[in-house]
Design goal:
five-stranded antiparallel β-sheet, alpha+beta, 5 helices, 31% helix, single chain, elongated
Length: 201
């Protein structure tokens, strides 16, 4: 699997109007489905007087965790077009919520699809799209006497040091791009007295 993915750098907004109906779109970078739903709940609370708050999200570098919700609009006219914009831009770890204020004129199925798609596109267009790496985290423990050897490897391989504690038994939490992690692990394992644990909480 490719160890990079595209997402947005920060929250962004977009607006779209059609036949007096106003569509406000809000996008945010998220890491979990729970974060995505919390963001949607936040938007729903802020725009409590809106007729609908439809959304879609995509999670994970493999882009296999996703959801689209029409929130009372005709089936397939809101969440799906929003998700379609996420897909067509190749994005993940993103949620987009679109709030609709009804303008008194029905838009019809095709009109709704167009409006939700356009609003989502506006939010994406105003965002900064960034490429992130898929990282793997490990925890290592070792005797203080191995400090110089371990630190030399860390300096050369350049993982991100998330935490460290140097006592009689030293521990470090390291994060490294997934494609580079096997080399880091192999070098640390060659020291023999180093214990490695995967994905520490």
């Amino acid at each position: 699997m490719d160890d990079t993915y595209k997402t947005i750098a920060a929250k962004s907004e977009g607006t779209y109007s059609q036949l007096r109906s106003k569509f406000l779109a809000f996008a945010a970078p998220v890491r979990t489905a729970e974060e995505a739903l919390a963001f949607v709940a936040e938007i729903q609370k802020k725009y409590y007087d809106a007729r609908h708050c439809c959304y879609a999200y995509m999670i994970g570098a493999a882009r296999k965790t996703f959801r689209a919700n029409d929130n009372g609009e005709p089936s397939g006219t809101a969440g799906k077009p929003i998700l379609g914009q996420i897909n067509s831009n190749g994005l993940t770890n993103i949620v987009i919520a679109v709030v609709r204020y009804f303008g008194g004129i029905k838009l019809g199925t095709s009109g709704l699809i167009q409006a939700y798609r356009a609003a989502a596109a506006e939010a994406i267009a105003s965002a900064e799209i960034v490429e992130r790496t898929v990282d793997v985290t490990i925890s290592i423990s070792f005797d203080y006497l191995l400090m110089n050897d371990v630190m030399r490897i860390v300096k050369e391989e350049q993982p991100e040091v998330l935490g460290q504690d140097f006592d009689s038994v030293c521990t470090m939490t390291l994060s490294q791009r997934s494609s580079l992690m096997p080399r880091l692990r192999a070098r640390l394992e060659n020291l023999r007295e180093v214990t490695i644990a995967d994905n520490p909480v």
